[in-house]
Specification:
Shape: globular
Order of helices and strands: EEEHEEHEEHEHEEEHEHEHH
Strand content: 25-35%
Strand order of the largest sheet: 3-2-1-4-8
Largest sheet: 5 strands, mixed
Radius of gyration: 19 Å
Distance between the termini: 22 Å
Oligomer: single chain
């Protein structure tokens, strides 16, 4: 619970804020203690802009005004582009991003360099919201949800001899991260709301990458409202299909014990 935190020691803590269309999530993590973590969820007013929702939140939540050792902003959005590090040039960021995504008003394109994967993740966010957050936290760091997933799944993909596909399911999309050991083969997001569409994209990419139906692995996380139907159908085609259990995934760390905390926030905190 947030109420149990001693905010007089906030400069020892990491504050992470996850921004999504569904709402905001906040975690306060003490990396210097025994990994204590507190988590708080907040719905947004759909009639207000992202910036207006943030300003209202900061007016109402006093502990957001404290100084923190580190502040992370995680953008939970399906709009991202992956670029090989060797081909990346800073001045080409917008050109590369908008080659794959339509432009939106008042947005800024940012990037995360993932040196372990020799890749760069391009992503966007609302320019006004970014300015507001930078005013509150001058040393704030911004991350794409895809960046934390790529780093985490990369380390997991080293285990065993099989190639692996990790899929993060959202209400209206499926994000795919595919590896051969810890070598990233593909990272992409596909719009799909129905179970049949999810199955189509997963199997299509599986086939395109020439994955083996018997020995290669498919790991699922995210919104799994259609879990039973999805698993049943996928197991008609693939032998190794798993649902990620965060407690097992993170060795039963304090972070994984809070069931409400989104999986991407867990990966971000544990990648630090």
């Amino acid at each position: 619970m947030i109420e149990t935190i001693d905010f007089s020691k906030s400069e020892q803590y990491t504050l992470s804020i996850r921004l999504s269309a569904d709402g905001f999530s906040f975690s306060v993590f003490n990396p210097l203690g025994e990994g204590e973590l507190s988590f708080f969820d907040r719905k947004v007013e759909e009639s207000l802009s992202l910036t207006a929702n943030l300003k209202q939140t900061f007016r109402e939540i006093e502990w957001l005004k404290h100084p923190y050792r580190r502040v992370n902003i995680l953008m939970a959005d399906k709009r991202f582009t992956l670029v090989p590090l060797e081909f990346f040039e800073d001045e080409q960021t917008e050109t590369l991003f908008y080659h794959n995504h339509p432009k939106r008003e008042n947005e800024i394109v940012q990037y995360n360099i993932l040196r372990k994967n020799n890749a760069v993740v391009l992503f966007s966010m609302d320019k006004s919201a970014r300015s507001f957050l930078c005013e509150q936290y001058p040393d704030v760091r911004f991350y794409s949800q895809a960046s934390s997933f790529i780093e985490h799944f990369s380390s997991k993909s080293r285990l065993g001899n099989s190639r692996k596909m990790y899929v993060h399911l959202r209400k209206d999309a499926a994000d795919l991260y595919c590896y051969d050991r810890n070598h990233l083969l593909l990272a992409n997001s596909f719009e799909c709301k129905q179970t049949a569409d999810r199955i189509y994209y997963l199997l299509y990419i599986w086939q395109q990458l020439n994955y083996n139906q018997e020995k290669d692995e498919l790991h699922l996380t995210g919104k799994l409202e259609d879990k039973e139907e999805l698993l049943k159908e996928l197991r008609n085609y693939l032998r190794q299909v798993f649902v990620i259990n965060p407690k097992a995934e993170f060795n039963r760390s304090e972070i994984s014990k809070i069931e409400e905390i989104p999986f991407d926030m867990q990966t971000l905190l544990l990648c630090e």
